[in-house]
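SAMPLE LOG
Freezer: B-3
Tube label: C17
Construct: single chain, 137 aa
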Amino acid sequence: MANVKTYTLTLDAQELHDLIEAAMVCECQAAQIINGLKRGSSGGCRKRRRINGMRKLILSGDDWFELKHTLEMLAIMVNNKANEHENMAAHAQVAELPERHANLAKRARERTETYKRLMALVESAERLPETETEAKA
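STRUCTURE (predicted):
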C-alpha cells in the first residue's frame, strides 16, 4: 500500500466557522469535507480534536489540496465580483446605484481577504510524516 500524505491544520472557532462558510459557497468535495466537520463525523477528514478551544484537523493530501484549490477559486471569483461592482459604481446613471455598488464591492473585498487568510492557514498546515523513519528524522 502506498504512503498517503496527511496534513494537520489547527483552527480556532472563528476560523473553523469561516472555513465552513467558504466551503458551503461551492458545491464540491471541499463542501463535503467541511460538512463532515460541521456534523462532527469523519466525512472527509480523518480526525477532529479539540485542543484548548482550537480544532485540530487531520486531512488527507487530496482533501488538503481540494480545500486549498477551493479557497483559491473563491478568492478569485469574489475579487472579480468586487471589480465588477466598482466598475458599476463608477458608471452608474441613477443616483442611488453608485453607493449600493460601492457597498457591495466593499463587502466582496472583505470576503476576498477572508478567503486569502483561510488559504494562508490551509497552506501553513503541517505535513505529517509518512513513515516511522521519516518521523524520527
